Amino acid sequence: MNIVLLEPKDTAQAEWRIHSARQLSHLHKQLNIQVDDTLKVGIRNGKRYLTRIVAIEEQEIRVTPIQQEACPAKLPVTLIVAMPRPKVLRRLIMDSVTLGVERICLTHSYRVDKSYWQTPFLQQLDDYITLGLEQAGDTIVPDIQLYKRFKPFVEDVLPSLIAPLRPAFVAHPYAETAMPHAIEHPCSIIIGPEGGFIPYEVDLLIKNGCQAYHLGSRILRTETAVSYLLGRLFV
Amino acid sequence: MNIVLLEPKDTAQAEWRIHSARQLSHLHKQLNIQVDDTLKVGIRNGKRYLTRIVAIEEQEIRVTPIQQEACPAKLPVTLIVAMPRPKVLRRLIMDSVTLGVERICLTHSYRVDKSYWQTPFLQQLDDYITLGLEQAGDTIVPDIQLYKRFKPFVEDVLPSLIAPLRPAFVAHPYAETAMPHAIEHPCSIIIGPEGGFIPYEVDLLIKNGCQAYHLGSRILRTETAVSYLLGRLFV
Description:
The structure is a homodimer. By secondary structure, chain A is of the alpha/beta class. Chain A folds into 2 domains: 4-69, CATH 2.40.240.20; 75-233, Alpha/beta knot, CATH 3.40.1280.10. The first copy, chain A, contains 6 helices and 11 strands. In chain A, the strands form 2 sheets. Chain A has a 6-stranded parallel β-sheet, with helices on both faces. In chain A, helix 2 (86-99) runs parallel beside helix 6 (222-233). The longest helix of chain A has 14 residues, at 86-99. Chain A binds chain B through residues 2, 70, 72-73, 95, 98-100, 135-138, 178, 181-182, 216-221, 224, 227-232, 235, and chain B through 2, 70, 72-73, 95, 98-100, 135-138, 178, 181-182, 216-221, 224, 227-232, 235. Chains A, B: It comes from Acinetobacter baylyi (strain ATCC 33305 / BD413 / ADP1). Chains A, B: GO terms for molecular function: rRNA (uridine-N3-)-methyltransferase activity.
């Protein structure tokens, strides 16, 4: 946690209130904070500030802003990823948010177990986003959308994300050409499930305007592929 | 698991033996394998083969090789990383091995809790390596070394890893220049602990031949930084 992210309502008074158990625990145990220490605080979907700690009580810590700070820019990328196993979902969302992905679309795919859509973890996406933002020092919540049917997503939604200077790249182990690197325009990146997209799905993606590229001869886990690919595409 | 990695002794007979509980469980539950199916099998520190399943018994599965397959090449990189928290260690080693890192050095650093060196997880590095190799389809075990003292490592070991066409890059948030990308030579990359290297450590690294570069204004978790950085450096 490199900033503390607060809801706007907690910053409505002159003294801002930090009162979530998770944040209080981190500030006490990891940072051992004291009155008059400075602390980086962000307002969800708002600005980021350097603040000073003015009061430490059992149930809350209060801070006052000293000066505004710059938020890191987002990457101009839409990440489209086949719904992962529940235990991977948390890390995938956190890391994508930390890395600055602007929009995330979770989609169904033939090799996605239907039970994944029932996971209670999907109710906790906001928490995972907060963790990712606090790690990155960012305040702006990315847009996350769920598409439980693959074909309607690819045929009706995906084409609207594609333009001449906004291509969509599918990471596909059997493509003949290597993924581009150091691009200087926005894009969408599409990552399949464990076991990969089936040929029908790859064909449908290409028919609807996507370009398939390989990422080398090593098969990466979904969450590893996301960071690896973002490091490669945006320099 | 994209190949099954076997010990050389299990491939000494005409029929090779798969008998680890983890591998058997995966082959039955995830792949639902049957006699006469083909299966990718690697021999630890040896070659990789397409095999045929010839017998399925309760305690073992036996295969015979059909033809040799290519192993993916390693990345010409030494990853030097401050010893992470135990629960991060597993993923860090797995992902680094999957991505093809040739050598990994775990070092101490001021902000590394001394208790991290006592974790029983350090006895399981071989298991994490196996998981990383099986994910990548690789068979060659990377070299992993532990350095429990930072200064002797930086002064006595690190200089021997550096050469004109084999630089060492420190990922440092406060460096003025951005990390290079798409390099065409070997290198070492150095990643600090949670909270970063202290100024004394960064100075010592630079004094001993390292170059410090930033990775943008977002602060990444160690394991995210590794995949992101490898994607950026090697294309």
